[in-house]
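HUMAN: Can I see a protein plus its fold?

ASSISTANT:
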Amino acid sequence: MNEKEQVKHYLVLFERLCDQAGRLTKILLIFLIAALIFFQSALHIQPLRAFISPVDKLDGIPVNEQAVKDWQR
């Protein structure tokens, strides 16, 4: 094999690598977008929210505005 044939062979291998990496990137991007949509939709369902988001447990009880004004005196 001479040098030009080796270069052509490496170019073909590089093109295959780029095509496969591009396909893998597209699949990963589609999967991540689908997961984002799924989890955002699941957060709107009250029973599932506690399992998905640990921050929801820290929500607490809203404070009455009048009670806060009493604290400031």
User: Anything to note?
Assistant: The CA atoms of residues 29 and 35 lie 10 Å apart. The mean pLDDT is 85. The radius of gyration is 28 Å. Residues 3-42 form the longest helix (40 residues).
